[in-house]
């Protein structure tokens, strides 16, 4: 799980162009949207692509993203559960 | 006064205005399920023009691209019955598009056209030469308000006396590039789109062309006389892809147009809405109609008939709106069944109705909005009054060199050796800018953002003005092609097909204006004019027209261009203020 969270942080920094940001600056439990990293709706869509590209997981309804992308932790849990 | 002379529509519903009117009158849609995977790996409901029929109009089919053929065919048809002479020096050609020949980026299509055709100014030049128009063609690329904005610009250029007639033509094709992007945005409807319906699930992408010929000469105009009596653009200053949450900025555009047309909300008989059928667009429009007391006025959207035709949409839809004025008939808003919470008066069946004044609205990425008023029997006041203006400050950022008021300053070490991205990041740090969104921008937006930050540093001028009186008018050459090419890579390989939403959102030149507006809370007139070189005289003339007609009091204007493919760049930005 810890490997996965670290990898996820790296992938998010790359996919969302969070230049200047280091992996240890992203808290595993902190909300990714609103407060925290301050991501927005386009970033949420990019995270959907990230899951599909790197983990083969398809999210059909963007609304499901709200729960899945709450934090790095929730993302990692979702991936562990759904990875094909 | 600016009158309608002639018009033409090319869409999935036919190649003439009358053919389109007939199908719309019979509530027929041109939207179909497309299963051929050349456009999208998944089947999609879209609205396409019959390519074979389009080609049939050309003796040699390989001289022009599909986009250019759409424009040529549409302009030709509109000119047939018009008394306006396209070869006249007093006739200007204005072209609106979002993506032009963007399909030429897809090398697998093997289209045999030179790369220069990717530039919107190049295709406009080709069209101008085809029709032997003597003036430089004006090209407007401002997301989904491009068409409506092109008509507004035409009206202003005629009202100001610069021209007597305008041929305004808009077109967009629907290649994989565009369809995949909107799919990545999860914005495409799973059936024909349902504008303003409570159960709407997104837009239906489409393609088409529209041409409207405008003139100040009554003898060249269609009967009954219909005039363009008002037109305004605004910016949400909220988000680059999501519309305003309040509808306030579209409402400002509507109110300013009403004022210009010397009308009030109660004079409006019909609203021809943008109505893309995305959840947020339609909600925003409903709010704007409530704010302007137009929520009880008959309203429809034509997207259920022909889909969203992007750069052509404003022109095609204003033509159908004009038909409602001349025929006294309102058309059913196709796809609408269930009322949404934000109640507005959506037309559920065709009906006979005397329409004297109608409003057309449009909104697009980059936070832009436009409103247009067309009128029968209305004589608006041409309240142009000559205003003096002054350039308050100038900055130029060109190929890693920075000039403030023409004095070169080089705050960055080794600036000559740095890539644009590294140089830009050094400037960002040198000027102590704190704006995390900066890192997500594409190169063009970074360039525009930095130029505006440096221009407005220690400058309190904008604080003296209302948000809606500040305009951003930008000349650009290569549009967003640098980012377009980057996006194309994400869809090139069918085995590694992951269209990137965060790249796609920057594939419009006017996103840079959106970024500047969000940062500085600017809500006034905003336009991207595309031309090969910086036509400074024209941009200043246009800003002057905005000042003279009361549409703006201060402006951030100039040239911002990130060249494709050579990567040379320039941001030459002026802060211009109208003298009180």
Summarize this structure as a short list of keywords or feature phrases.
heterodimer, A: mainly alpha, globular, B: 580 residues, alpha/beta, Peroxisomal Thiolase, Chain A, domain 1, 2 domains, twelve-stranded mixed β-sheet, 16 helices, 21 strands
Describe this structure in words.
With 84 residues, chain A is mainly α. Chain A has a single domain, classed as ACP-like (Non-ribosomal Peptide Synthetase Peptidyl Carrier Protein, Chain A, Orthogonal Bundle), CATH 1.10.1200. In chain A, 52% of the residues lie in helices and 0% in strands. In chain A, α1 crosses α4. Chain A starts with a helix and ends with a helix. Chain B has two domains: 374 residues, Peroxisomal Thiolase, Chain A, domain 1, CATH 3.40.47.10; 190 residues, Thiolase/Chalcone synthase (Peroxisomal Thiolase, Chain A, domain 1, 3-Layer(aba) Sandwich). Helix content of chain B is 30%, strand content 21%. Chain B has a twelve-stranded mixed beta sheet, sandwiched between helices. In chain B, α4 links the parallel β4 and β5. The two termini of chain B are 27 Å apart. The mean pLDDT of chain B is 96. The interface between A and B is medium-sized, with 18 and 17 residues.
- Give the overall form of chain B: globular
Mean pLDDT value of chain A: 88
Strand order within the widest beta sheet of chain B? 1-7-6-4-5-19-18-20-21-15-16-17
Cα separation of the termini of chain A: 16 Å
Regions with little confidence, pLDDT below 50 for 5+ residues of chain A: none
Radius of gyration of chain A: 12 Å
CATH topology of the largest domain in chain B: Peroxisomal Thiolase, Chain A, domain 1
Sheet with most strands of chain B: 12 strands, mixed
Contiguous low-pLDDT stretches of chain B (5 residues minimum) are none
The CATH architecture of chain A: Orthogonal Bundle
The oligomeric state of the chains shown is heterodimer
Looking at this structure, what is the CATH superfamily of chain A?
Answer: ACP-like
Q: Give the ordered list of helices and strands of chain A.
A: HHHH
